[in-house]
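To whoever is covering the structure queue this week,

Two jobs came back overnight. Logging them here so there's a record in the thread.

Job A:
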Amino acid sequence: MVLGGSALTPRPGSPEELADFARLQSRMAPMYRRVFSDDSAPRTVVVIPSLSLDPIELRKIVGVRHYEERMLCLLMLLRLPNANVVYVTSKPIHPSIIDYYLHLLPGVPGRHAHKRLTLLDCDDESPDPLTQKILDRPRLMSRIIEAIPNMDSAHITCFNASHMERSLAVQLGIPLYAADPDLVHLGDKSHGRDLFGRVGVDYPRGAEHLRDEGDVVAALAELRGQDPALRRSVVKLNEGFSGEGNAMFEYGDAPDGSSLEPWIRRNLFERLRFEAEGESFEPFMAKYREMGGIVEEYLEGEKASPSVQVRIDPTGEHQIVSSHDQILGGPTGQVFLGSTFPAHPEYRGDIHDVADRVAAELSTVGVIGRFSVDFVSVRRDDGWKHYALEMNLRKGGTTLPYLMLKFLTGGAYDSATGIYTTPTGQARYYHASDNVEKDQYRGLTPDDLIDIVVQNELHFRSHRQQGVVFHLIGALSEFGKLGVVGIGHSPERATQLYQETVAVLDRETGDDMMIDLREPADHLIFSER
């Protein structure tokens, strides 16, 4: 079978595949210049929402198989009159979910959008990465190719790039708008600390490129030895996801001097507190030995957890596209739950500057696509002190709400002011979460949710460019979980819309208690700005 114009399929990772991939990627910059600046230019975007990450870490995420829906925001590309979208998933997406997104399209009849949308699936609920499922199905790959009107104006977009996405690009014969898989290691926590050091960015004291329990013990002892007042340190897997790969170590009554390291070795098992529900010592350390990790000081005090999102385009130019204050939860406030947009005005300019330096460095080595830089920011007497925590060379939890805002309103984020404005000059803000989750929501089907939306007028109102948008709808019935984005003319209005929506869901399912996602977080969250 001929795929992508080649009769032979090169072996994954072989010199032949790498050469084919390099040739494909050389097409991205000319296509970007020709197509991306012209809304009327024909194009095809093949959306592969595979979470090609460590499967054991992914199992910690409730309803993770439905996270393939998080990129449904890209259906909004169908607002462009000559755009085609091919969206591939493990299992079919409920038709009501697709209809919900297409009805959000501003100024485009649903029938016209449907004609330019191709939905394909693997009919496979296994935990294998979606991209691997596609690679195992040559007939499905043929159908993807058949859905592309012009290969010269097509590209793949994905959640994250791995060797599987590289193989898929080569076998389909279209380039990948994402970081080269040979560069994605730069986004793990150890290499992130290396890069922060190279560009002169502050980051927490600690140690990186650790491989086993002995390294962890030595690093914990070194940090406490440097600062006898240190109460806690964090042990992190290099490739943990959404903070679920973190664990907290409490020093408590640890001794000083030469007795410290033996004491930590004896007490590591009992003193390590895991962020992921159900995690335990042996599996965590086994994964640590497999992927490595870091140890860093836990910064105490009045804190915020901002993040900056950046895009490096195929020509090598980079742009700050958004900033957020992250909403965190979990046992010690390290698990990502949601975000408010944009980040607080007291410091958004400062974190823009840091992200700009990081982007300039990544651009020099050929990284393209979206990435984020996450911070912990501590209030000091003279203002905020920012420490870079990690980079994520992929799309993330802040990608969907921002893209929905941009596609629905047609506005832009001004990195100089940190304000998003619509074409009419009005500012917009949002309050978003992937984790609106409650047991009594279970059993609500997508059609039930749409009924609730209609009956309670929980719409995004295009004439006002405000309202509520839902996502992760497929996870609702089984897991009682979905995503909500409240978009308003002020931070207060955005949060109000979000909270009113949760209150409606509670009322409709027989519980008037409002969810407060911020309650577990051990850090500062700004709800009024």
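Job B:
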Amino acid sequence: MHILMYGWTGKLLRIDLTRKKAVIQDIEPAILKDFIGGRGLAIKILWDELPVGVDPFSPHNKLVIAAGPLSGLPAPSSGKLVVASKSPLTNGYGDGNIGTWASVAIRKAGYDAIVIEGRSNKPVYLYIENDKVEFNDAKDLWGLDTFKTEDELIKTHGKDVGTLLIGPAGENLVRYATIISMKGRSGGRPGIGAVMGSKKLKAIVVRGTGEAKLADPKAFREASTKAYKEILEAENYDFWIRQGTMATIEWAQANSVLPTANFREGVYDNYMAISGTTMEKMKVERRGCPYCNMQCGNVILDSENEKSELDYENVAMLGSNILIGDLKKVAVLNKIADKLGVDTISMGSVIGFLMEASEKKLIKEKIEWGDFEAAKELIIDTAYRRGLGALAAEGTMRMSWYLGGGSSDWAMNIKGLEVSAYDCHAAPGMALAYGTSPIGAHHKDAWLIGLEVKMDRSAYNEKKVRKLIEWQRIRGGIFETLTMCRLPWIEVGLNLEHYPRMLSAAIGLDVTLDYLFTIADRVYALIRAFWIRENSEWSKVMDYPPMRWFKEPLTKGPFKGWKLDLEKYEKMLELYYKLRGWNTNGVPTKETLKKLNLDYTIPVLSKYVTL
């Protein structure tokens, strides 16, 4: 019997693509209270349900689409979903956070999560309307790019639906294919789009007509209104609206962290040509996610005279990282990647790796640094696994295994996930943030570099480690479980206390930041347990950043000659483990697991590692 809950719907929609069956199930209230939603609910489901060692492309892998109790409600930047699975890129836990109307629609349809299992024998797309699920033939959609697919689905089902879909990259199992929504919103860097493709699932279309039941609607409305107002009154709100994350190009250059020539350097001579200042003069439109009043999507016309939505990560990785100093051309590469459904960060890293491999004659193909046409062709070939693109589709870790020649030192990934756009030769704290990110080298869990540039850059100290854990609790814990965008807090300084206040009003429990931090620690420990279970030869080396940062010093810029110190990094990593209650190999101790109510992981982990 379903127990009436507030904030949460308490319901999960389970879809079996093999049998073409759907069933609505109750979620235990205790699970929701222990994991909240989003990433928390996703890792709990994957831990409980996946066979140990499952192949990510097997029908037995599962795709979890999880909202949180504040997702899709009229609150600042709440139009978010977590998409999660066992990653085909890293072989560990993989997830992504995507802004989409599907978040609103799934909640209105009455679900906290959708779990998709099995594999269709032919291309299908799902149409979900409240408690009704249709398995529709997708043969006419299969092969279409993400923009055309969305157009066709809206033509069929109307504008008031949410969509999640894949492009050719997902269909062809590119290991870093993403899920796309709203013609440019992308989520699932660790290949979640490829998992969708492996299931022959082209798209999910959702319409909902219900409303979430809140414990105290009046208190929620007041808390939300206050938060929206605080955002508008923030000191740097106007500048944020003008440049968004694109302001980071000039900041990264000034602080010598702008990825350049496959992370050889932290400064780029032609940085102004791809900067936020340059973008601002070209801007034709601004886009955002549902319920956002500080939209970050800056749109320009690219060199093909088409619209492309830019942010810092894709411009740095497809610009300075491969030495293309023309924003309109970078915008073309970004647009093509979005249309084909491939992650722009990993794609930029893969292109940089292959340009360097060409320079060092590890491949026969000639791909010069800054060659726009070659980069464009490579993105397309990757999505269709043609020629060199078949190798590129595997990601930098596997490419380095194949090519050898010392290339693993400059295959810029951690645990298989390509490093996002911050060079760490002179940023040991950010290197640790990448090393300990729960999905591989990604910045979303802890953008420590922003604080680190204000501290002693050369320090490998406890202050940085404690701040890293605090930010992981907030960014990777609170925001990824609620599930909401972190940018109002990060970029315009929205008071963090607004979030427990809104959550308390929604679910009817008195929630504190400490309660949310405990949940974050539980989620991080369970994700770590999943990694260890799925990678039986686990060692702390998996938390090391790329060797380039230790072996090859910067040759230019204000930190010329700097590189990371491996011995000092190891000490900082050991301190991180100690503060988290993990052992010297990065494994949560029995005491920590018991304290976090994760006792059920102990017998499993004991088979693989010493606890």
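Note for Job B: The chain is about 40% helix and 15% strand.

Please reply-all if you pick these up so we don't duplicate work.
Q.
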